[in-house]
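Technical annex, item 7. During the second reporting period the consortium partners agreed on a shared format for inverse folding records so that results from different sites could be compared directly. Each record opens with the tokenized structure and is followed by the designed sequence. A conforming record, contributed by the partner at site C, is shown below for reference.
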């Protein structure tokens, strides 16, 4: 499979950066573990390139995990239910914007419904599910688009299922519990909540991640000899986001170009975003 499928646009996804990030992956490893998987872009890319044979996906957002689970294990059902939800916005007398907000209310009130989560992601502005201080999703809809067409969803969902079914275990729990599952020979890729954007009334994340707690988790992995790669901070132009990870961890710090900043472009400026990649000490020394 030459084309890399993706289920839906998702802000913060590393889909575009996946080739640059996986260039630092070891030649051989047993399992790829994503404790902060989002929509699993790195795992999908890795499976497309046959970088390993087993995957563990985890995210604290159960709705996202349930959606990925349905995509992998029951893509036909996900497609059919998504199609039903998507088509109802075009019924006579239905206002598409008002329909989105009714679906958003259902998303906030109902138990996890994978096809509904997919519809919300397909219709939400900037592909970003944002939450208020009460944990309710409050992001507006994208008024310029109607969301991904069902046939596109079908094709991508079936491709993802073909890549990952029978090879992937999914969880929705604290990332530290996932780290305990890791064994020597595994590779952990972590893309935790960006520093500085996990708080406030319009947070991109359900929960924040304390810096010191995360550093202790990396110390734990170092002590156990587990390989890991972390996307954590970065900068756009002269603006820096977050603190660097401590040097004593022994990680190799690399800046990778993530393209032009869309916000800077809107402000009439030309600035490029650089994202940090931290490679664990034993991994980079072994491949040096």
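Designed sequence (site C submission):
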């Amino acid at each position: 499979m030459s084309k890399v499928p993706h289920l839906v646009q998702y802000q913060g996804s590393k889909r575009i950066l996946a080739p640059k990030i996986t260039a630092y992956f070891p030649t051989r490893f047993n399992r790829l573990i994503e404790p902060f998987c989002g929509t699993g872009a790195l795992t999908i890319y890795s499976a497309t390139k046959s970088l390993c044979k087993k995957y563990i996906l985890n995210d604290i957002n159960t709705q996202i995990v349930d959606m990925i689970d349905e995509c992998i294990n029951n893509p036909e059902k996900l497609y059919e239910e998504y199609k039903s939800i998507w088509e109802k916005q075009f019924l006579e007398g239905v206002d598409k914007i008002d329909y989105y907000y009714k679906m958003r209310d259902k998303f906030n009130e109902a138990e996890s419904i994978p096809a509904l989560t997919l519809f919300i992601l397909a219709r939400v502005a900037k592909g970003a599910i944002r939450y208020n201080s009460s944990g309710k999703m409050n992001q507006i809809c994208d008024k310029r688009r109607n969301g991904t067409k069902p046939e596109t969803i079908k094709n991508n969902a079936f491709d993802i299922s073909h890549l990952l079914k029978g090879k992937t275990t999914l969880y929705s729990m604290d990332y530290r519990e996932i780290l305990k599952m890791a064994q020597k020979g595994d590779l952990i890729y972590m893309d935790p909540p960006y520093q500085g954007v996990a708080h406030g009334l319009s947070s991109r994340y359900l929960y924040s991640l304390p810096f010191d707690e995360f550093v202790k988790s990396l110390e734990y992995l170092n002590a156990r000899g587990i390989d890991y790669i972390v996307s954590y901070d970065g900068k756009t132009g002269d603006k820096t986001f977050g603190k660097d990870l401590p040097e004593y961890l022994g990680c190799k710090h690399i800046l990778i170009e993530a393209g032009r900043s869309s916000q800077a472009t809107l402000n009439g400026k030309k600035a490029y975003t650089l994202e940090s990649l931290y490679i664990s000490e034993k991994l980079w020394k072994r491949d040096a």
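The first strand starts at residue 31 and ends at 34. The CA atoms of residues 262 and 271 lie 9 Å apart. All partners now use this format for quarterly exchanges.
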